[in-house]
Specification:
The structure is a single chain. By secondary structure, the protein is mainly α. It has one domain. Helices cover 78% and strands 0% of the residues. It has three helices and no strands.
């Protein structure tokens, strides 16, 4: 049985973004680190989705918009 890790990578992406936001006052570059790790998980999620379905481009656009939303929230 083949497994699809798209959802796992997506949750790791969200957790890294939340971790970056949570440590914002403790560590000055926490949002950049969280965003970088999250972007890595985002690409892994898109690659995993591409292996299963051919509509990974649409998934990638949605996830990048989600990432931009979190980065924008961190600077408010």
């Amino acid at each position: 049985m083949k497994r699809n890790y798209t959802l796992l990578f997506y949750f790791l992406f969200v957790l890294s973004m939340i971790g970056g936001l949570a440590l914002r006052d403790t560590f000055s570059y926490s949002m950049m680190v969280g965003g970088g790790i999250g972007l890595t998980f985002l690409f892994c999620s898109a690659y995993s989705a591409e292996k299963k379905e051919k509509e990974a481009c649409e998934l990638m656009v949605r996830m990048l918009l989600f990432l931009c939303f979190f980065v924008r929230l961190s600077y408010l």
